[in-house]
């Protein structure tokens, strides 16, 4: 799926996670959800989430992406709402999402904020010089 943003390394990483998820499905494995165009059955977006290793109740949205031509039509919002509901129905108390501070990720940051995620921490220059890691989080249940 062409995102218009992720590079080959990112795509390879998603592919590996997808293969792992399909090969060894389990509640602790990566979970994928897709959004499909009803008329064509084309996949127009996907999200990947899972339990954060070494934590009790923290879950992570690893990837979320809408097909370029379908942006701004609610695909990302539906996917994020769906995965939050799924994580909540599992045992998530806290959801985290890591993203970049750079301009191409502005739509992602706005999406997270619109769905109740708060910018919780910033790691300066994490991805590159002037490319910070932003950690968004949402608390579902107080521990
Ligand atoms: C982030 C992404 C998944 C959003 O998907 P989308 O289907 O276009 O988003 P939606 O149409 O569901 O919009 C949901 C909210 O996101 C925000 N948003 C989406 N596109 C936006 C844009 N171009 N500019 C500003 N805000 C935007 C808005 O807050 C919007 O809510 P609103 O319509 O009530 O204002 C999509 O832009 C994408 O795939 N980006 C590339 C991949 C990426 O950055 N993934 C996240 C990496 S951490």
How many helix segments? 3
Biggest sheet descriptor: 6 strands, mixed
Order of helix and strand elements from N to C terminus: HEEEHEHEE
Percent in helix: 25-40%
**Number of beta strands:** 6
**Ligands bound, unique:** coenzyme A
Distance between the termini: 38 Å
Structural class assignment: alpha+beta
Strand order of the largest sheet: 1-2-3-4-6-5
- How much β-strand is present in the residues? 35-45%
The coarse overall form would be: globular
Mean pLDDT: 92
Low-confidence stretches: none
Using only C-alpha atoms, the radius of gyration works out to: 15 Å
Q: Could you explain how this protein is built, in words?
A:
This protein is of the alpha+beta class and 143 residues long. Helices cover 28% and strands 36% of the residues. The chain has helices at residues 8-23, 75-89, 106-114, and strands at 31-36, 43-51, 58-66, 94-100, 118-128, 131-139. It has a six-stranded mixed beta sheet with strand order 1-2-3-4-6-5, sandwiched between helices. A hairpin with a 2-residue loop joins strand 5 and strand 6. The mean pLDDT is 92. Coenzyme A binds next to strand 3, helix 2 and helix 3.
């Amino acid at each position: 799926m062409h995102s218009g943003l992720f590079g080959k390394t990112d795509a390879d990483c998603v592919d590996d996670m997808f293969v792992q998820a399909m090969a060894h499905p389990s509640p602790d494995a990566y979970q994928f959800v897709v959004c499909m165009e009803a008329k064509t059955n084309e996949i127009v977006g996907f999200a990947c989430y899972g339990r954060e290793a070494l934590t009790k109740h923290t879950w992570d949205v690893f990837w979320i992406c809408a097909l370029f031509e379908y942006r701004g039509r609610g695909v990302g919002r539906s996917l994020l709402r769906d995965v939050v509901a799924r994580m909540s129905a599992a045992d998530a108390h806290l959801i985290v999402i890591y993203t970049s501070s750079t301009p191409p990720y502005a739509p992602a940051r706005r999406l997270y904020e619109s769905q109740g995620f708060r910018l919780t921490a910033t790691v300066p220059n994490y991805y590159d010089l002037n490319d910070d890691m932003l950690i968004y989080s949402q608390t579902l249940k107080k521990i």
